[in-house]
Amino acid sequence: MILKKLIILTIALGGLFTANAQTPEQTLDSWAQKNTIQKLYLHLDRETYIAGQPIWLKGYLMNDYIPSLKNSTIYVELLDNRSTVLVRKIFPAYQGVSLGQLEIPETFSTGSYQLRAYAPLMLNQPGFVYSKRILIFGAAPKNAKAKETGNSIDLQFFPEGGNMVNSLLGNVAFKAVDDKGYPVYVSGQLKNNKGETISAITALHDGMGTFTLVPRADETYYVTLDQVPAKQFPLPAATGKGISFNVTGTSKGKQFRIEHPAGLPAEFHAAYLIGQMGNQVLFKQPLQQGKDLIGGVIQSGGLLSGILHLTVFNKDNMPLAERLTFVNNREYILPGELVADTVNTTAHQRNHFSIHLKDTIIGNFSVAVTDADYETEPYRPLNIYSYFLLNSDLRGYVNNPAYYFRSDADSVSNALDLVMMTNGWTRFKWSEVAGNTLSPVLYKDQGYIHLAGNVGIEGTRKAFANKDLMLMMRPVDTLQGKVGPTKIIQTDSTGSFRMDSMIFYEKMRVLFSDIKGSKSKYIKVKMDADSLNRDYKIPVLKIPFADTASAQAEEKMSAAYNDYLKAEGLTLKSVTVKGRQKSDREKLEDEYTSGMFSGGINSKILDLRNEPGGGTNIFEYIQGRIAGVTVSRNQDGQYVVKYRDAGLGGSTMALYLDEMQTDAAFIESIPVNQIAFIKVMGSFIGTPGNGSALAIYMKKGADLNAVTESATDIIVYKGYSIIRQFYAPDYDLKNVDPSKPDDRLTLAWLPDIYLANISPKVPLVFYNNDRTKRFKVVVEGLTNDGRMLMIEKIIGGE
Predict the structure, then answer these.
(1) Of 193, 197, 377, 562, which alpha carbon lies 20 to 30 A from 61's?
(2) Residues 703 and 732 in one domain
(3) Beta-carbon-side half-sphere exposure of residue 476 (alpha carbons within 13 Å)
(4) Which UniProt key words apply to this protein (predicted)?
(5) What confidence tier does 304 reach under pLDDT thresholds 50, 70, 90?
(6) In sequence order, what E strands does 515-603 have?
(7) Is the pLDDT confidence value at 616 over 60?
(8) Which residues, at least 6 apart from 224, have a Cβ–Cβ distance to it below 8 Å?
């Protein structure tokens, strides 16, 4: 709950509404219960990257100020300056957190890119996905242009409450940005249409400022800037039918002031004030009638921190004025301290830091340690505080939002109030509430992966109904080394099946088979729409696009990129080799085999690509067709394949399917007409003692297109993106080569620190690289009750 204690006594409004009418707050509450606010923040290991290396990340999900358990999947995308998705990763989420990495191709050119992340539930309120700019240093851009400085300025005005009202004193906020959307300092004069100067104006922070004005009905107003004196920036027209609404932060809370001009029609008189946070109405306060000036104080000390949205309504439930104001009670902070127990900037030496919390807690945290001299800024512009409490509820761009959470000084609070006045709340509009046209719930969380489809009997219109169906899963990438499950599932009366809440990674080959042996029906599986790998329509976010790195930072990062290329051997020029034409067997092996499965002068190959596929299974098929290979069954009925070489006894062969060791039961179910070829290796280095191996390769590409009907069907489904483990050398171990260059920019990435009421002291151990003299340490995380830990510190270099 947002409200910790009663702020303002809510009085029943009796005659304001008819008995059957739904009030605005009731409509909002009904919508909010079905369309909850979901937020996703990414803790990244760095702010700047080099092409060819990964972005390490951890996602934190929140709903109603606590970790969200409603999301099972997050999508992370890297976009260019045209909002084209270049890289996309999909990761599972557990208990409100998710972790993974996004690999940056070596071919990326130097520039600014957009990192975007979301969960499907977030898209029910479009425009509120996680997004930030990151700098990537790589190859020189093909069409590199000189940096443009430009002096184009856009000046926007935001009357407090929504309107300037004739004859009433009001505040007008302004914001100045350049042609790229970044804030610029401005100063100038406010003038009327007669050219008379009313007052001087000056930006106070990040191009934002305020001035006061009493508009007259017979005047219009504009601003001229000292930076572009030839241009006039007109203010919005004032109205005679409206109210003035002013909000000021005080030590007691939020003081408000509502004023009506003389002679205002009754339909424009303020009747009540509503305050809401996170789509939850906190209070509804009737306002005294018959008064032109109404004031009061909202006691905000009992609120959780965040954006408070205040709206004044008339007696007919129509909004008259709105104002955003920020509540910062700092209850969201989990106090913590980073202690440098042992600091050693000598190459390859061990460092020991620790996180000290005041008490034991339950929560999930992540830590990044990087080379501070390869960062573009001493502090990150976005952190877990500023995102969850500020950015995630504002559609517009906020420059350096973390600034507003680094100090509780009055100057910072005043600057944050300027952000409130120059950005609108856009999760909903009260006009949409009144018209019951709020955004519908279009997206649901799928609950991880579900496989669903329909099975039919090949060559008929009959469903494979109410029957057992065997399902076996094996990874397409044999390097994964993980074998998927084998299950017996049952179809319903229409031949349909469904399996929910599945988690697997990368491409998985899924084999469906009738289990009745020689009486098996030839089946065909038609899968339902992919529940995981789907495209979402996401509004393009207008984020300033500029390379803001200093010349020194650019030089360092470009050098780091060249060091990476040299270490990976990626700067060698390609070499063209001419030779003889390859045989059919060599072409076959080039297409299907790799690594230690390739070649072999004494190996034998049985090419099945053009065979009709006789026999009930591949083991029956090869019986007697390959010299030295015998097939039999053991006492459990399982096939056993042995190889007998000249002068040697028979040995049981290791079985491989697409170069992954596999059991005979799985291979037995694969139709012969889906196998490309078999390779027999009498001596194979991949088996213990260089024993014999039988490698079976399934058809792909053009070979697979020629497959005829069978009692099984195979589909390939792409699961979650692989979650890799961060590698950092342990120089206390003897197996680490100290002579190998160590130019890591990220020295430690610890994404999965889970505390469950254990010691409030968390140790951090890492080893230095070849060159780092200053360590930048960032610690972030969430407790189960919604408190946030954020520590950002540079250690060393004194």
Answers:
(1) 377
(2) no
(3) 15
(4) Signal
(5) very high
(6) 523-527
(7) yes
(8) 188, 189, 191, 231, 232, 233
